Amino acid sequence: MLRPRCTAAARDARSASARRRAEPRVGLLYALTAYAFYAMALGALGAPFLAAELALDDAAITGIAGWVALGAFGTALLTRLADRHGRRLVLVGSFAALPVFSIATAFATSVPSYVIPQIGASAMLNTLATALAVAVAEEASDAHRARAQAWFGVCASLGGALALAIGALVPEPGGWRAFWIVAALPVLAAPLVRARLLETERFHHAKQDGRVDATRGSDLLRGPLRRRTLGLLAVGLLKPVSIVATSTWPYYHMVKNLGLDPGWASLVYFAGGGIGLLGNPLGARLTDAWGRRPTSIAATAALVAAGSAFFFVPAGGHSFVTIASLVALMAVNQVATSACNVADRCIDAELFPTALRATYVGAARLMNAAAGVATMFALSALAKPLGGLAEAIAVLSVATLVPALAIFLAVVPETRGQTLEQASGDAA
Hints:
This protein has one domain (8-424): MFS general substrate transporter like domains (Growth Hormone, Chain: A, Up-down Bundle), CATH 1.20.1250.20. Helix content is 78%, strand content 0%. It is built from 19 helices and no strands. Helix 4 (72-85) runs antiparallel to helix 5 and helix 11 packs antiparallel against helix 18 (389-411). It is globular.
């Protein structure tokens, strides 16, 4: 039986107290975010070097990425634990386990010995990123929820930038192994993380109120949540196809197909990604002023358009026109990606109650992974008959983006201006 809910006045007092206590915890969450997204960038950055070392073509390297994405099945299971036993347990566990898979990857000598630990690393990284996004949303005040997600995006971008910096220093094809060795080093901070990371106030009170024990994962498919869940999972299957197709392979394309050396390819990423950081505050402002829905739709269309055009920039060596075109398109893509991510993370957190929030996001990650797997194998199958990776990316993007946006409009309500409890139904 559920315990009596707190009064509105008690919730307000609790919220003010929680904000004061949450500030140090949020800082640690942001640091973990930078680490998680550093590690998440390594697979794509290491792809051209892995391909050179193992003599893999475009079809083979995209196939490997598809297998690695299967790690999201583990993420779906682990994120359910976050709704049953707390965000802290899952965050600490995935952070501590990741170095095992990182070291195994660094010493891989064949495709199977690379893919197997990478599936484990994918599961841990996606779990870590999912639980972090949920925890940031729950620790943020209602007035600053979009801003908190914008800072989450900034830290994620800084983590990716660190990976690019290391990538620019790779001296030879085998140097990609250093990526994963560096990714294992933060395990030294595991005792500190375990000591400093506390449970979120919102989960703590949901547990006390009896909402956690009274809720099952299958509740996502019952009552008023059913249509919303199924619709958003369909979006989670369709929308990432175009995003994954356009965002995964720019570095690989620049190094292997355009003939840029790793330093120039990293420069394009740094310049475009640096400008792209502006998309986080822009996304927060638009999400609060314009709304979650229109921000997500407009930003998604822009990032896919710029991302697709990136692959059609003609090879021109290291000429100014080539580099400037790549930087400009990368910048538009990254600004739009950051803005889209702010809106989407707000939507994911706001549309589901505390006792189901991580479960839904984990299920969405599974759909994203299924989309990633389908995308990689589709690109692998289409690259040759369509004439190359660029053409395959364009076809997949057009075929999946339009229905994804239509479903999104049909099932996602606008939650701008609402408290997290009002938007999610926790206040009912």
